[in-house]
Write a sequence for this structure.
């Protein structure tokens, strides 16, 4: 039998089997939020969750990432490269949208002449054991981005929640190999498989947010100077919530941090956001994106125009985090709706 | 890569622009650092940070590389406090650089303003090198500054003026005692010099307002969009197209630029 | 009167006044709230047509302090010719306080503003509701009688309204904006007198310095430094925040604990005697950090040491802007 069954009370066993060789990340509750944490006690794993507040991208691309450490001895500098990144990770419970975001992240970080080997290395050493979303939220819109709540292609192992157990399916070779290692998993019955299919159908039907993104890049491209950007940025307060909690945002800043009163320190990269006024501020004082109008435009264009132009797919996974968490409720879905209306106006003109 | 400061040259009267000459600590690093004029590098002072600076030297100047740095923020101020023998980190070369191959067989018009002249110096030194001079036709240089105290690379300019295979025109914004070259902004001087667009490439580098006015003049002179090259500035961090901030549309200035033809710029959103 | 009826009345008041102001060309635009796109939110809106006035709403989720949209940090509301617009702004008490304080700090010109005063009946603490409901999706939230009714799939829960208000709203004594001549319409307060015993602070104040340190440390450690608290705060209008300065760099930008802590505490110091107690920072924090306690502390200190409450008197200089030889100095000697 290709497909296996993991009982929910066996998750402790799964953890114990794998933790020797892997950092085991899974959803946990930290204060008010679900996040993907490195598990030290399998009892901490939360199984009843929609999705994490901070996307699991932080495992590949941590908010603070040490590039190297240095020591200064007078005129001489000693550089210490970070220790080899060969630790293996498992991300248990990653949702399909976030797993898809890893594809987008790697498209970007591994593209071009200069590759981000730190992140590529982490990705290579990471195995995704994802779980389908039986009950998507009303703000989820993965189906508008050619995904679905049971999309398994981007995972290594895909689980379906069957109440007291999970249906387990190996997707990639890496995943299949891992399942072989877990020889104690029992075979799934036909009834399990049918139930999973049924749940998949239901979940897809449960996605109520449908936004039309078919032509979005083509609409956006000629409308860089459209007045819509003033309209959709009017209430933006300019914080970084949407980008910091976005699974596909990749921007960072690089700074040197010295240890006070010691001749040593580290160069780190930290998350940055295109919504910050400093992001593009030239040393001369000139700022090509001087207000919310340009910054909101850049964010939307990056996801829905530039990324598709460069990589042939949308730069959004439809997780809905920015929709849920924007302080000013500047709803991405409403912005897309307004953008789609530009096109209609244009068509009207053409037909007249 | 690590380098050592070999020499420091103060370039202007107010002493806020200095040129640092760096030599590689490791011979292998030097060999692997193959660059062309117009490229930049990320240079860093460990403990202060890193910043992207255009390479002012030409690959034909063997043994070291040069950066001209204006004192502005934390990192550049750090460079200004450097002494000979200090260690400077280096990453690069970055960016596309001037298209030296495509420029072969052409008349070259170099137009620069102020402190942005560094990569133009690199280009001119490269072309004037004995090995390359025959590959290029006439060279006209228009170089403008606020006042005579701001003119960079004075020894080089002296050399060039002595040569008969390059036409150097200097200008400053306002009259000054003892100044024998031209007076006025760059754009009107270019109009006066009126270089021919015939088989020519114009290379423009300077502050945004100078670029704008000069391009207008070049268009008047019937230069085509493909014949006008610009080097853009942007806030940058990584220099390798990953940190995000230097995008104009779907292009990154640090890897797709900094050199863009006017034809390319017109295809891009005007967000720079 | 029960809360839902109060809300209806307030909403009607807003719409009537907005309609009148727009019709009589007293203002160019109305800044107010409209229905949010998801439960537990409201959406700030700028209205310039009389026929859109009915989009304006009032409910207990209007947590954004609209005064923020008038400070210079955010592009000012302008017309197409680039002239500043005359704005009618829907103002609960803390928005009125913010406007007055911003005027005292010379950040806005009240002459260009019409304050549409409304008697706020409290803002619901979104985070507390989310804690209560847990990992279940809320489809609808409403207020009925003394209760908040929450509905979702297989979910219907009733929570007592008073317990689920923002802590700052529970102690608020300035429900409507303080009245300013010729600028206020609607329900505004004449010379509000603040009598506050800060009894809600007794528990925190009785802690030892070490316990306070632990408490605040624990409070802040999930911060991602998205700066939503700063960006939503009407008093955070600096063109360049101290966090963003790089010459000199005051402290690090990482999420290391010391960096987060420094940011929040220095920001708190800048808020002393300036915070208007709107609670917007806590309402919007994506990580659910509740800054209300820090804000109450600041209010208490300003009141006890300087007998000052921000945003009440358009003529009174805030303590950090004025120096007086008689000012209490004893805090310099204190251990904590």
């Amino acid at each position: 039998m290709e497909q296996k069954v993991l009982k929910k009370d066996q998750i402790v066993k799964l953890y114990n089997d794998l933790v020797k060789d892997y950092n085991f990340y899974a959803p946990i509750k930290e204060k008010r939020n679900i996040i993907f944490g490195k598990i030290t006690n399998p009892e901490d794993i939360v199984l009843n969750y929609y999705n994490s507040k901070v996307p699991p991208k932080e495992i590949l691309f941590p908010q603070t990432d040490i590039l190297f450490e240095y020591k200064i001895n007078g005129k001489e500098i000693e550089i210490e490269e970070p220790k080899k990144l060969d630790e293996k990770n498992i991300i248990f419970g990653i949702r399909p949208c976030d797993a898809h975001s890893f594809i987008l992240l790697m498209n970007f970080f591994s593209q071009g002449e200069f590759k981000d080997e730190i992140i590529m290395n982490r990705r290579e050493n990471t195995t995704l054991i994802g779980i389908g979303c039986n009950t998507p939220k009303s703000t989820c819109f993965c189906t508008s981005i050619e995904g679905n709540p049971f999309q398994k292609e981007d995972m290594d192992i895909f689980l379906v929640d069957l109440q007291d157990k999970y249906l387990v399916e190996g997707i990639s070779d890496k995943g299949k190999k891992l399942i072989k290692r877990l020889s104690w998993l029992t075979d799934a019955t036909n009834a399990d498989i049918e139930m999973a299919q049924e749940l998949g159908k239901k979940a897809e039907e449960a996605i109520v947010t449908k936004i039309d993104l078919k032509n979005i890049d083509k609409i956006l491209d000629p409308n860089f100077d459209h007045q819509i950007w003033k309209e959709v940025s009017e209430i933006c307060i300019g914080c970084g919530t949407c980008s910091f909690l976005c699974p596909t945002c990749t921007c960072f800043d690089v700074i040197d941090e010295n240890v006070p009163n010691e001749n040593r320190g580290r160069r780190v990269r930290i998350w940055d956001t295109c919504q910050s006024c400093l992001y593009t501020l030239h040393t001369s004082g000139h700022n090509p994106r001087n207000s919310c109008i340009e910054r909101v435009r850049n964010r939307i264009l990056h996801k829905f125009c530039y990324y598709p132009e460069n990589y042939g797919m949308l730069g959004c996974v439809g997780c809905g985090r920015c929709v849920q968490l924007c302080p000013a409720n500047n709803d991405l879905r409403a912005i897309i709706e307004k953008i789609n209306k530009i096109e209609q106006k244009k068509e009207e003109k053409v037909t007249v | 890569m690590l380098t050592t400061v070999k020499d420091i040259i103060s370039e202007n009267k107010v002493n806020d622009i200095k040129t640092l000459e760096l030599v590689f600590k490791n011979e292998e690093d030097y060999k692997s650092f193959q660059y062309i004029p117009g490229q930049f590098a990320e240079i860093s002072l460990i403990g202060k940070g890193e910043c992207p600076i255009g390479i002012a030297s030409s690959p034909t100047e063997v043994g070291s590389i040069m950066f001209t740095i204006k004192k502005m923020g934390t990192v550049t101020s750090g460079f200004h406090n450097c002494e000979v023998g200090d260690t400077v980190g280096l990453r690069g070369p970055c960016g596309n650089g001037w298209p030296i191959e495509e420029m072969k067989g052409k008349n070259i018009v170099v137009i620069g303003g102020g402190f942005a002249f560094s990569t133009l110096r690199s280009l001119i030194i490269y072309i004037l090198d004995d090995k390359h001079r025959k590959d290029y036709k006439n060279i006209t240089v228009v170089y403008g500054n606020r006042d005579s105290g701001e003119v960079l690379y004075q020894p080089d300019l002296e050399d060039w003026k002595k040569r008969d295979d390059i036409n150097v025109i200097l200008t400053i914004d306002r009259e000054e005692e003892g100044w024998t070259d031209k007076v006025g902004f760059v754009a009107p001087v270019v109009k006066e010099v009126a270089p021919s667009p015939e088989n020519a490439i114009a290379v423009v580098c300077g502050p945004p307002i100078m670029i704008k006015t000069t391009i207008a003049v070049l268009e008047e002179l019937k230069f085509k969009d493909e014949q006008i090259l610009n080097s853009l500035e942007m806030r940058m961090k990584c220099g390798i197209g990953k940190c995000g901030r230097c995008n104009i549309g779907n292009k990154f200035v640090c890897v797709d630029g900094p050199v863009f033809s006017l034809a390319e710029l017109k295809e891009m959103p005007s967000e720079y | 009167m029960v809360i839902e009826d109060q809300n209806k009345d307030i909403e009607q008041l807003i719409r009537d006044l907005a309609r009148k102001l727009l019709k009589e060309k007293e203002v160019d635009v109305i800044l107010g709230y409209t229905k949010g796109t998801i439960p537990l939110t409201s959406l700030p809106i700028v209205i310039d047509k009389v026929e859109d006035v009915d989009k304006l709403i009032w409910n207990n989720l209007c947590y954004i302090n609209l005064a923020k949209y008038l400070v210079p940090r955010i592009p000012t509301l302008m017309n197409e010719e680039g002239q500043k617009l005359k704005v009618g702004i829907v103002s609960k008490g803390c928005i009125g306080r913010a406007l007055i304080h911003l005027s005292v700090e010379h950040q806005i010109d009240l002459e260009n503003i019409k304050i549409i005063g409304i008697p706020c009946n409290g803002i619901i603490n979104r985070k507390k509701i989310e804690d209560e409901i847990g990992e279940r999706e809320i489809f609808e939230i409403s207020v009925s009688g003394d209760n908040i009714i929450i509905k979702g799939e297989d979910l219907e829960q009733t929570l007592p309204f008073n317990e689920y208000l923002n802590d700052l709203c529970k102690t608020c004594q300035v429900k409507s904006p303080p009245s300013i001549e010729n600028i206020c319409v609607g329900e505004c307060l004449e010379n509000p007198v603040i009598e506050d015993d800060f009894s809600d602070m007794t528990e925190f104040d009785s802690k030892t310095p070490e316990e306070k340190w632990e408490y605040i440390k624990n409070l802040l450690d999930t911060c991602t430094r998205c700066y939503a608290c700063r960006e939503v705060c009407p008093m955070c209008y600096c063109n360049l925040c101290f966090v963003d300065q790089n010459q000199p760099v005051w402290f690090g930008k990482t999420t290391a604990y010391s960096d987060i802590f420094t940011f929040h505490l220095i920001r708190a110091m800048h808020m002393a005697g300036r915070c208007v107690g709107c609670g917007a920072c806590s309402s919007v924090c994506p990580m659910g950090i509740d800054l209300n306690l820090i804000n109450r502390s600041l209010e208490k200190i300003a009141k006890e040491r300087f007998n000052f409450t921000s945003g009440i008197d358009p003529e009174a200089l805030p303590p950090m802007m004025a120096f007086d030889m008689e000012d209490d100095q004893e805090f310099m000697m204190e251990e904590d």
Notes: Strands of chain C lie at 29-35, 42-47, 87-91, 113-117, 138-144, 147-152, 155-160, 184-186. The first strand of chain C starts at residue 29 and ends at 35. The CA atoms of residues 41 and 146 of chain C lie 20 Å apart. The longest helix of chain C spans residues 3-23.
